[in-house]
Amino acid sequence: MTGLREIWAPLLLFVFVIGGLYGGLFTPTEAGGVGAGGAFLISVLRRRLSRADTLAALLQATRTAAAVFTILIGALLFGYFLAVTQTPQKVTEFLTRPSASAATRC
Fold first, then answer.
1. CA 81 to CA 66: how far, in whole Å?
2. CB contact at 8 A, 10 and 42
């Protein structure tokens, strides 16, 4: 019975999130937000998450988001560069052009 006292909150959160998904209360993206918010609320109410831990988690999340956006922006700039320089068209033309040396090898 003491084990149930330890897991009732995460179990309730799980049932709420999965039930909300299957019940049509929210979309998968919203379910992720509800789950994250619920987990944060549970940890704060149980006093297992200090202010320093919260700030460290937010800092790490910010660093991860910045890394993802840096990669995304780099990919967009690279795509723009390829479009402006017409690199895909030139590579295709180079690879599909008949070679004079191939005909003379036979």
1. 22
2. yes
Token pair 């890394």 is at which residue? 67
Question: Radius of gyration (Cα) for the chain, nearest Å?
Answer: 27
The token pair that represents 61 in the structure block: 């999340």
Q: Check: pTM over 0.85? Answer yes or no.
A: no
pLDDT in tens, 45-94: 888 888 999 999 999 999 999 999 999 999 999 999 999 999 999 999 99
Interaxial angle between packed helices 51-85 and 87-96, expressed in degrees from 0 to 180 and rounded to the nearest 10: 50
- Rounded Cα distance between 72 and 64, Å, is 12
First-to-final CA distance of the chain: 85
For residue 19, the tally of other CB atoms under 10 A from its CB is 11
